[in-house]
Input
Amino acid sequence: MKIPKRLKKKQAGFLENPNLQQVFDLIETAGGQIRVNGGAVRNALLGEPVEEVDLSTNLVPEQVSKLGEACGLQVIPTGIEHGTVTIISGHEPYEITTLREDIETDGRWATVQFGSDWKADAMRRDFTVNALYCDRNGKLYDPLDGYADLEARIVRFIGDPDQRIAEDKLRILRFFRFFAWYGSDRPDPDSLKACVRNRDGLQGLSAERIWREFKKLLSAPDPVRSLLWMRTTKILSIVVPETENWGIDLLPALVAIRRQMEEPVDPLLRLMAIIPPRIERIEELSARLKLSNDETARLKNWADLPDLSSVMSENELAKLMYRSSNQAAQDALWLQMANQASKQEETSETHKLATYAKTWVRPELPIQGRDLINLGLPAGPKIGKTLSQLEQAWIDSNFSLNKAELIELAGESSE
Output
């Protein structure tokens, strides 16, 4: 399928950004060539948002840096040894990479030489759907016929899949991530087989890179088919061994019901759907993938929450959330809804509770230690014990006891 000559007007809106146009001017006034590459062009052709714009040029990094500095722009040597510098134009960063050709690789970083051959540059990229370029006017360039694959929703490696993976083993996980976002039907068989042959290479990658890539996969509108193929090929067990003997059967229902309720994609909730709610397993997962403190706390709060499968009133839920968190309750209730939906059970009552949990605000205990001291209780352990007893009475009252009533209770208990 022949690629269109240029982006349609509604697809090319991102090119009108004056900050981006300044970068084009920077290179072209010096006699260089510059084109947008990869994801921005792919997304524009698909009618999807263009969030990041990366560029390629035939000028070497030193030339690009000098041009930027001469114009008073901030220049960051992001990966200058690999041909990439970042130009800050109007507070927006633009990565500009010199046309390259790999001459040596260690499976993580490639040794490159700079050149002026656009097709050679395309050949060193990962997938055909990412080997697309356009100029400042939206004129399209497709040296490897990636447009046909984009139209057919086929994700395939460029050239020899084993060689592409040898250049960076993370491309195995990227293959499944791109299949989740842009693929359809079955994965490209040659690419899939290469991923299986090289899957052990994933174990040598940094945890941060693996989690960043897997989180992007989980953020796809519907990652289920991709995860099923990862499980079938035992690649999922390498990335998230916690899924073994647990499965991903709950995920399709979770994706469907969240979409039905017009809830946003939540990759961490999707992770909960495929791992056991066990503190020790979550601690292992967090340490291995180096999750953030917030991500780890959310997973542990969910795992530590009592079972919510029995019918619960809003008052009962509020008491539970007070001791835990409303986020943990929301997570547990959404997974409960997914389980109910998978069994074709009614979900409306659970959804009401999830909505209540979302809007619930944790109340503050109306009484403090100094109130008890003013009441005449001696400072010391008894203050803490009495305060704890009053807090429980306040919770039991559905948080209805006011300060005066709690002081009265404190006075009775001290008599």
Remarks:
- The chain has 21 helices and nine strands.
- Residues 369-414 form one domain.
- The radius of gyration is 28 Å.
- The first strand starts at residue 34 and ends at 37.
